[in-house]
Design goal:
The protein is built from 11 helices and 13 strands. With about 375 residues, it is an alpha+beta fold. Strands 4, 5, 6, 7, 8, 12 and 13 form a 7-stranded mixed beta sheet that branches. A 3-stranded antiparallel beta sheet has the order 1-2-3. A 3-stranded antiparallel beta sheet has the order 9-10-11, sandwiched between helices.
């Protein structure tokens, strides 16, 4: 694997990167002035994407994030053969197994989809245990040369994927991401409108008490010439979901960048959203990720002006916050909140992964996917 001037210095991560075809992990931090470490992993033979990114307080942390995101996509590209048949056929063949049909996973599905013969993947039901079957197309996106998974009625998305040395941590990552994007779709259905900003902008003065790590990060970005606007994007799931808008008053090279995050603790959610906004800037400046478009400057200027004109009134302490002693306990807490909101069951399908890594796809019927992403 080609080294940049800041090598991984992690033999395990080096081995994982080599196993999935990553040829370089580059440091993007110097392309911008946020001070947040951003790394890019290049996987030339990738089917879904060839470039993935990560961020963190250190380059090692950013590099791990970039490589683990590459693992997620590599895993999705390698479909595992499973049962084949209609939803009713697999129900009869596997009594006692939860079958999440194509119609259950797609809000605007045609009821006739359940009569289609599809490929299926086994998954674990989170929280209460047990097994489930989900359409293979919901968890895998193989290249055209691979065996077919059945009619393409399910739109594959990387939303809800996780990769980590610890399986519970991988599941938690995927579950939080799925909740984040659902809550964004519900909280900001029309995007960053004036009404949404007035209702959801967090008062900066409330951060020091309710989210001290985020307050420190906002102050650091302000010293580097940025204006930061944070939003509470929770919408009924009982979890802290945050959005961060990072405004460059000088306009160049990226006038406004956005980041989003869901965590169990409010400070962690707000801080993670800020980190993602910084990564978004570096990703756009870098220009190598093929699914990221150049920002629309005509749209960015009015949004920045609107944020500056609105006086934030929401106390950061209004965001819910909880703690869990382990990823497994956190998963249980999140699943209970989803069930209370009438969502679920949440399931996790294990995917192929290099030795020493767990890759999963989390699927939760009823969750939405934000158009902001």
């Amino acid at each position: 694997m080609r080294r940049d001037p800041h090598p991984l210095r992690d033999r395990w991560l080096d081995a994982v990167a080599a196993a999935i075809g990553v040829t370089r992990v580059a440091r993007l931090t110097g392309l911008d002035r946020t001070g947040v470490e951003v790394a890019s992993a290049v996987r030339p033979a990738g089917h879904v994407l060839q470039v993935t990114n990560g961020k963190g307080a250190t380059f090692a942390e950013a590099a791990r994030g970039a490589v683990m995101e590459a693992v997620e996509l590599w895993a999705a590209e390698h479909a595992v053969p499973g049962p084949h048949g209609t939803a009713d056929e697999v129900r009869r063949a596997a009594p006692g197994v939860e079958v999440l049909s194509a119609t259950a996973l797609t809000p605007d599905a045609d009821p006739a989809w359940d009569a289609l013969a599809l490929g299926w993947r086994e998954a674990a039901v989170l929280g209460r245990g047990g097994r489930a079957l989900v359409p293979a197309a919901a968890v895998s996106c193989p290249p055209p040369s691979a065996p077919l998974l059945g009619p393409a009625v399910i739109r594959w998305t990387s939303n809800g994927m996780g990769a980590h040395r610890d399986r519970a941590a991988a599941v938690l990552h995927g579950l939080l991401e799925a909740v984040e994007r659902d809550q964004l779709a519900r909280a900001l259905p029309e995007g960053f409108t004036a009404e949404a900003l007035r209702a959801r902008l967090v008062a900066p003065g409330s951060l020091a008490r309710a989210a001290p790590r985020s307050a420190a990060r906002v102050a650091a970005l302000a010293r580097r010439g940025f204006r930061v606007h944070l939003l509470d994007c929770g919408a009924g799931a009982g979890l802290p979901v945050a959005a961060a808008l990072l405004v460059d008053p000088d306009g160049a090279p990226v006038p406004v960048a956005a980041g989003y995050a869901c965590r169990l603790e409010r400070d962690a959610a707000l801080s993670a959203a800020l980190l993602e906004a910084c990564q978004s800037r570096a990703t756009e400046i870098h220009g190598a990720r093929e699914d990221v478009l150049v920002g629309d400057r005509d749209q960015a200027a009015p949004l920045a002006a609107l944020c500056a004109a609105i006086r934030p009134r929401l106390d950061a302490g209004a965001l819910p916050s909880a703690r869990a002693p382990s990823p497994a306990r956190a998963i249980g807490a999140i699943v209970r909140r989803l069930e209370a909101a009438g969502l679920g069951p949440a399931v996790a399908a294990d995917l192929p992964a290099p030795e020493g890594v767990h890759a999963v796809q989390v699927v939760v019927p009823g969750l939405l996917l934000s158009e902001l992403l």
